Description:
This protein has 190 residues and is mainly alpha-helical. It has helices spanning 2-40, 56-61, 67-71, 76-100, 106-135, 163-177; strands spanning 140-145, 150-155, 184-188. It starts with a helix and ends with a strand.
Amino acid sequence: MTAKWKRNTVVATMTVLVCAAVALNWKYSGEEAVENAEETGTKILGEAMLVSGQDEEADEKGETADEASVYTGGDYFASARLTRQQARDNAISLLQEAAEQENADQDVANEASEGIQVLASYTLKEAQIENLVTAKGYTDCVAFMGQDSVSVVVSTESGDLTTEDVAKIKDIAITETGLPAKSVKIMVAN
Length: 190
């Protein structure tokens, strides 16, 4: 009974730590990245720029890109993917540490290994959903998968989603995840 209690305590603690890490990362990563990037003169990962250092509109006009616009993180999709990946990396790191502790129970190590496999599975399914949705002609897409739900945020040229769009995207999400339709949420990015 005590081994089960210890295992459940470790799993609950890890879950709380992962949630806290995600929340803190979400809150501070954007603000601090912009401040640090401006101070050091570096670029933010995920910000798209042409090799020439100019964006397409500015390139056509012969102007250089405004650096302030590069650092603001205006690309929701790149920012969301980066935040999701950082949270997953933190969770995997915590699970690996739990599994590799010298005094770790075999059950704890097995659960940590299973947790890592689940997170890897989520990552793969999210990537498949994103690729299939953009292959259907949507501007961009980001998917967030949880234990029993998936949320898909889509960008369209018109800025709206029709019922046909929702049906297409929901079909892709259901096919890739095996979740029921009521567990799939589709949103349009503003």
